Amino acid sequence: MDGHNSDDSKQSTADMTVFVQNLLQQMQSRFQTMSDSIITKIDEMGSRINELEQSINDLKAEMGVEGSPSPLAPSKQKSDEAKQEEGSA
To answer: How far apart are CA 34 and CA 19, in angstroms?
Structure first.
């Protein structure tokens, strides 16, 4: 009887090993697929960002504001002038 139980135990261990190996291979395959998908999406996002930057630069060039100060600077300058006028009045 011990020999028979030993054979069953060995077969059960071998079956479990095969099952675990197959499961790990499936997981590896799924992770690789997901990884490839994520990398592809990141590359696409990078391309979109580059296109957006180029569009912004094109619009700036069309408007002629390539070297002009930011829009906040003139409004701050106007508020400083208004304060000076109030102080001199």
So the answer is: 23
Residue 89 DSSP class: -
The C-alpha atoms of residue 19 and residue 42 are separated, in whole angstroms, by: 35
- As separate numbers, helices (DSSP H) first and strands (DSSP E) second, the chain gives 2, 0
Q: pTM here? A: 0.52
pLDDT value of position 6: 77
Both tokens assigned to 56? 């912004």
Q: pLDDT averaged over the chain? A: 81
**Tokens read off for 44:** 């696409």
Query: Does residue 44 sit in helix, strand or coil?
Result: helix
